[in-house]
Amino acid sequence: MTLKTTLIKNANIVNEGNIFLGDILIEGEYIKEISKSISAKTADVHVFDAEGKYLLPGVIDDQVHFREPGLTHKANIKTESKAAIAGGITSFIEMPNTNPQTTTIEKLEEKFEIAAQTSSANYSFMFGGTNDNLDEILKVDAKNVAALKLFLGSSTGNMLVDNPEVLENIFSKTNLLIAVHCEDEGTIKANFKKYFETYGDAIPIKYHPEIRSEEACYLSSSKAIELAKKTGARLHVFHLSTGKETALFDNKTPLKDKKITAEVCIHHLWFTDKDYDEKGTFIKWNPAVKSKKDKDQLWEALLDDRIDVIATDHAPHTIEEKENVYTKAPSGGPLVQHALPAMLEMHHKNKISIEKIVEKMCHNPAILFQVEKRGFIKEGYFADLVLVDLHHPWTVNKENILYKCAWSPFEGTTFKSRITHTFINGSLAYKNFKFYDVKAARRLTFNR
């Protein structure tokens, strides 16, 4: 069988803190050669002129909810993975709070089978912890599964792990990376009771960050970190939303050696509590979007490397669900298609360099989760590549939104940059709102 060969010429290649004009030769699924100038040696090489566009490693999104199985009226792996590759996300790690929940090996493998049939992007899934499934957790193969997800607040079904003895047992015994959602449930319930007594179901959305407060986040994050330090567990704290929490994290240790790492999501870097007036429950997330001061401190921690990763926490709901009154409107929103354009918009505003965007969205997720041969533009690595035109404005609207839920918190926003091409394992899978049915996606593996 002859390997498919593609030559990308004249690209501004962004990798490991550098940008240089060069060519990339792809043979089959892998990057064969990177050089300032490469010539096609045979006539059957597909030569592609990047015309000076920026070539990035494919984004690895370490936290998405694609809603399959059981919640497919909101989204599914097929629709959301297509939206992801249109947004330059070539690999995703999906969460266990589906229906049924991914808390047994059997249910985990069922999700892998769905993704093998329908996903446009490379995929992995997190295994879910509960108060009573330690035996199943210990069966998980760390080389083939991204991580263990624990909800220490804001869970669905029976996934709230709130038994201190169980928690310590899990932290002590698993060799998996433990990813946690940290919000203290007791604090949230007390805050909610106060506002519910005043407003009933129609609590004004502006009080969401008061209910899911800074203290609720900090109390839970600090406890998780304390437990990780006590047990030696490898801990990753999802979606920081407060400035106060950033003080809990370190920027003195190289990422590959860190035992405790942190993530921030697009919405906490973009929106503030001032946006509730316009966006209402459409920017209702858990943890809540908080103050401008919090946003500024999150940016500071991201840029000084206390925060390691930018992710989406893509969590779609239908428009009808989101339009409900406060107590009935679910938290979460769709983000995979617009995350990289949003960060590139921040680059245009001189908030962050392209090199730093690539570090936080491509390199660091690969290092942090020990993803094999992805997240970098390197010879011998999988050719997950994204071409970006920094000067091709477009406006988010109903006609170009690709999520199954058919809405976006960015509707009406004009981005200066667009993703023009996405390669998955060496195959062109997406080009300017057109998809190619190449079935190139693979299950992620981990170098552990």
Automatic annotation (TrEMBL):
Q: Could you list the residue ranges that cross the membrane?
A: none
Arranged from A to Z, the UniProt key words for this protein are: Hydrolase, Metal-binding
User: Locate the Amidohydrolase-related domain: which residues?
Assistant: 54-427
Gene Ontology terms: cellular component: cytoplasm
Q: What EC number(s) are associated with this protein in UniProt?
A: 3.5.2.3
Swiss-Prot/TrEMBL cofactor(s):
Zn(2+)
The cross-references to InterPro entries, in alphabetical order and at most eight, read:
Amidohydro-rel, DHOase/Allantoinase_Hydrolase, Dihydroorotase_CS, Metal-dep_hydrolase_composite, Metal_Hydrolase
| Any GO BP | purine nucleobase catabolic process
SUPFAM superfamilies (UniProt xref): Composite domain of metallo-dependent hydrolases, Metallo-dependent hydrolases
Please give one Pfam family short name.
Answer: Amidohydro_1
Q: Name any one GO molecular function.
A: metal ion binding
Function summary: Catalyzes the reversible cyclization of carbamoyl aspartate to dihydroorotate.
Family the UniProt entry places it in: Belongs to the metallo-dependent hydrolases superfamily. DHOase family. Class I DHOase subfamily.
Name-wise, this protein is Dihydroorotase
Species in which this protein is naturally found: Hwangdonia lutea
